Amino acid sequence: xxxATARALNNQDRCDRCQAQAYVRFELEKGLELLFCNHxxxxxxxxxxxxxxxxxxxxxxxxxxAKA
Length: 68
Ligand SMILES: [Zn+2]
Fold this sequence. Notes:
β1 (about 25) and β2 form a beta hairpin. The model has no long low-confidence stretch (mean pLDDT about 90). This protein has one domain. The chain has a 3-stranded antiparallel beta sheet with strand order 2-1-3. The protein has helices at about 40-50, 60-65; strands at about 25, 35, 55. The longest helix is centred in the middle third of the chain and has 14 residues, at about 40-50. By secondary structure, the chain is an alpha+beta fold. It binds zinc ion (ZN). The site of zinc ion (ZN) has 8 residues, from α1.
């Protein structure tokens, strides 16, 4: 683990597919990053998890919001 990859997602982070707020970040080799909303993370997640070097999943925050 490096501190450089520990940045939390915030509401400035947007899904690369639909511009909704991003809740999952896939870090790939060579410093590439893909950000996805919950919907697109589910759609693309299986493939990306196989190649990602690190995954930040904050979709648990969605359920927290839903409960509030
Ligand atoms: Zn999306």
